[in-house]
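Suppose a colleague, Dr. K., hands you the sequence of a protein chain of 285 amino acids and asks what its three-dimensional shape might be. Before reaching for any lab equipment, you can write down a predicted structure in token form. Begin with the sequence itself:
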Amino acid sequence: MTRFYPFLFVLLWSTGFIGAKFGLPYAEPVTFLCVRYLLVIAVMGGVALATRAPWPHAPRQWLHIGVTGLLVHATYLGGVFMAISHGLPAGIASLVVGLQPLLTALGAGVLLGEKVLPRQWAGLVLGFGGVGLVVSHKVAAAASAPELTAMLTPVLVALVGITAGTLYQKRFCPAFDLRTGSVIQFVPCLIVSALVASQTETMAITWSGQFVFALGWLVLVLSVGAISLLNLLIRSGSAVNVASLFYLTPPTTALIAWGVFGETLTGLALAGMAITVFGVWLARK
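The predicted structure, expressed as tokens, is then:
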């Protein structure tokens, strides 16, 4: 069963961009995330109490888990949501965040002492090239936008957050109870995001059916399902192997967008998908 975790994680994680596209018209990005974090804390806190899940004993462990939450969730999700809400196409956001496996490989060798083999480097480079082909038509369409630099800043911050969070968690807290750990991760995210939203946004929400659907999907499928799988993968695999899976997100998102929104898939994009899959296979072989 565990051998299917990577595939399930990629599928669930890839729906995050779709959920953001559905929900962001009805709430500002950080406000949207605040509601999402609050519901995740309520759901996982209830599960933890009902099942009497163990809480960490050492204060240092609480700190490490909380820091990973701020990096992987608050920084990454906040950056991506802000970039998309400011008009950055999801394809470009995927391409920028697609640098994460390469950055993680660099950090894994320096910070974790993991040996990255030449075959893995080749797979990571191929994977990024494939991602570039998948989103190339969207990049070309938006590259001339005058506000592109301003839109890219939040997603670059998101890239740093998800890379640092993956390395930090692998180094300091690779294993923790998924029920109580989720609560510890999302509480600081809620506090920091609420402070940011109160100073930069109106915090107004239009409670439409589409927004409620997007919120429920992002809470249950992404923040509970996909994040739990990510924590399990970080616990059991190397940082490079886990990070390489993020290359599969843009191709999977493109396929979902093709099926849900009727977005076109070019021959170049299909070729890029094949190259990406081969690159990830090579990096994880």
